[in-house]
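Below is just one:
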Amino acid sequence: MASGPEILPSARRGFDRDATLALLAEQEQRRAALARERDELAQQVEALTSELEGHRSRVTAVAEALVTAQQMAAELRAATASELEAERAKIDEERAQLVEEGASIRADARQEATEIVREARIRAERLAHEVVAALREYQLETDQFLERTRERLDSLVGDLVGRIPAVAPEAPATAEPVAADDEPPAADVVAA
């Protein structure tokens, strides 16, 4: 649409009033439409600006949340690694302590076993000496018993020979002594 004096028809004293008013009315309608369009566009710009600010704040919040999450993840990884290292060190320390305790227990067990073996040898030697002493005592008692028995037998034989009438040949006055280690001959045992 054209504006200015070329579209207005001229009249006697200036411009035609009806055409001027019509043009002014048309311009007013156009201005009002443009104002409305401007207001609508301003509202749209304001709404879009508000929406943009909302998106920006959300982006900022998401970025901050992401940074915070990354920091927390890094801290959590570091804490977990630290805890894991502490647990490994604790386990290694406990393992070393158990190995040391095991070595100590083995050493104590060896020492105790050595002591038990030593005591068993001492007891065995003592028992062997006691058995040998008991056997010697038994042998001595046996020898004394045999000696006394021989003496009684000699005495009994002498008494019996003395009671036999004179027809019997003379018996020897004493019997031959028998050694303690020797067994009497079978004939002597039968004659006694």
Remarks:
- Confidence is low (pLDDT under 50) at residues 185-192.
- The first strand starts at residue 10 and ends at 11.
